[in-house]
Write a structure and sequence with these properties.
510 residues, alpha+beta, D-Maltodextrin-Binding Protein, domain 2, Dipeptide-binding Protein, domain 3, 2 domains, 15 helices, signal
């Protein structure tokens, strides 16, 4: 039943993707989609990157063993057509036999085993390896198109990692010269995806061409547009000017007011869709930074939760599908539909709780942030309104990461773009420097949840974790996000439920 279910889910999705892509015909003169990113594109190897721009590119040039259905989070076959859990720590995967790399080399089980084994080697020090190391032990070739995965421990979310994290590389990619080279494909991998790299100028332009030998029947369908040019344009004003003049066809992450204003122009289309990214305020509840500080008092943390007008901030500063959230997860994620403690916006209650905690005259604190400065300022303003003398420290992400690792941050406003499971492992694992709760029992609950094979029991464990995090206000849950796009009016760009922009789905109006 397990294998049959995986196949049945795939058939309808693959057919729909193939039909939609085949039905679109480009009418642009040069059939080229021109895209602008604010981020400088430097390293095209997704094994060593995490930012969304790099994920967007990887989706175009790379393939993974499985894919995730953006509508419901289910797993779809991609390079692997079926998977079988032999026992809790052994899984066999059968691979497609009709897949070629962009240089024409046929993909085999040897490439899959190599990709996973090399990424977890001591020399690699890769982000992909760091993610799968919690469960992956080794991979071995059983047949030319069959590979066996050995797990360190039972780990049901391994399928998620197979779907979103490790792109398959040709065997020998990183150690062709006998020593490991982490920059072997930073200038562009020989991938398996629907587009291949035609040229790349780091920090400037990336040109992708449709790969005509891309395998058919996969979850990405048959891309309609023959060429995609991605330009690094850090200045958003320049991006918008280029869009208006026709030099750019697609930009994303546009501020709401700008998107709505420019969207009224006849040569610009404004699209707004959901995003699985959530915002949160992490607090030093465990006293890891300040052992006797105000944030170790539950009443103070609850006062902060009541003080922030999350709904109004989401509506005014993000708009679209953005909305207040109540737990440490996006409402669409596993275990997020169970009851948790709700903290309505109530400044008077916040002041009363502060008085009960002995801080009737308020206290001083510092809120760190690395993005969304208008939202950061709104959080600080609301806290100040109830007597908490909060100071904003807006920094680059790298600076925040270093300070957090050195236990120098009392609280910070952060965001997380979710997978199909909530980000509790990354933020409440015992070994994570993001975990400021000091709650060892919660950390064990997280470990138990991520190793539970029974899906119903796992959902219950996640629900209990969310309830504990929210009740104890280790996080102040803030809001979900929305994404604004500006495009050429002739471009058809489907918006998926998970908010991830998949450029291979784009087409031109007929």
């Amino acid at each position: 039943m397990f294998i049959q279910a995986a196949r049945l889910v795939a058939v309808g999705a693959f057919a729909a993707a193939h039909f939609c892509a085949s039905a679109a015909y480009a009418d642009k003169a040069d059939d080229t989609l021109r895209v602008a990113f604010t981020e400088d594109i430097i390293n095209l190897d997704y094994n060593y990157t995490t930012k969304r721009e790099y994920i967007i590119i990887s989706e175009l040039v790379d393939e993974t063993l499985l894919a995730i259905n953006p509508a419901d989070g289910s797993y779809l076959p991609a390079l692997a057509t079926r998977y079988e859990q032999i026992d809790p720590v052994t899984m066999d995967l059968t691979l497609r036999d009709d897949v070629s790399f962009h240089d024409g080399t046929a993909m085999t089980a040897e490439d899959v085993a190599y990709s996973y084994n090399i990424m977890t080697s001591e020399d690699a020090q890769s982000l992909s390896g760091g993610r799968i190391a919690v469960w992956f032990d080794s991979a071995e070739v059983l047949e030319p198109h069959k590979v066996r995965f050995h797990f360190k421990t039972q780990y049901p979310l391994a399928l998620q990692d197979m779907a979103i994290r490790v792109p398959i590389r040709k065997s020998g990619t990183y150690d062709a010269n006998g020593t490991f080279d982490p920059n072997a494909v930073s200038g562009g991998p020989v991938g398996l995806g629907p587009y291949k790299i035609a040229s790349f100028e780091p920090g400037s332009d990336l040109v992708l061409e449709r790969f005509d030998d891309y395998y058919s029947g996969g979850p990405k369908g048959d891309p309609a547009i023959s060429k995609i040019v991605i330009r690094s344009l850090p200045d958003e004003g320049t991006q918008q000017a280029e869009l208006i003049s026709g030099g750019i066809d697609w930009i994303y992450g546009v501020q709401r007011d700008i998107a709505e204003s420019l969207g009224q122009m006849p040569n610009v289309a404004h699209l707004s869709g959901p995003d699985r990214r959530i915002g949160f305020l992490i607090l030093d509840a465990g006293g890891l930074v300040s052992p006797d500080g105000p944030l170790t008092d539950l009443k103070v943390r609850r006062a902060m939760a009541h003080a922030i007008d999350r709904a109004s901030i989401a509506e005014a500063l993000i708009g679209g599908a953005a909305a207040r959230i109540e737990g440490a997860c996006h409402p669409s994620e596993l275990g997020c539909n169970y009851p948790v403690t709700v903290y309505d916006y109530d400044p008077e209650k916040a002041r009363a709780l502060l008085a009960e905690a002995g801080y009737g005259d308020g206290f001083e604190t510092e809120i760190w942030a690395y993005r969304d400065k208008p939202m950061s300022e709104a959080i600080v303003s609301d806290l100040q309104a109830v007597g908490i003398n909060a100071k904003l420290r807006q920094v680059k992400l790298d600076s925040l990461n270093v300070a957090r690792a050195n236990r120098q941050i009392l609280s910070y406003f952060g965001t997380w773009g979710g997978d199909t499971a909530p980000p509790i492992r990354q933020h409440f694992d015992a070994d994570s420097d993001r975990n400021l709760s000091g709650d060892a029992e919660l950390a064990q609950m997280v470990t138990d949840a991520y190793t539970e094979l029974d899906s119903e029991r796992q959902a219950e464990l996640f629900a209990a974790i969310h309830a504990r995090i929210t009740d104890q206000v280790y996080w102040v849950p803030l809001w979900s996000y929305s994404v604004n796009y500006l495009t050429d009016p002739d471009l058809v760009f489907p918006l998926d439920d998970d908010g991830f922009p998949r450029l291979y789905k784009a087409s031109w109006k007929q």
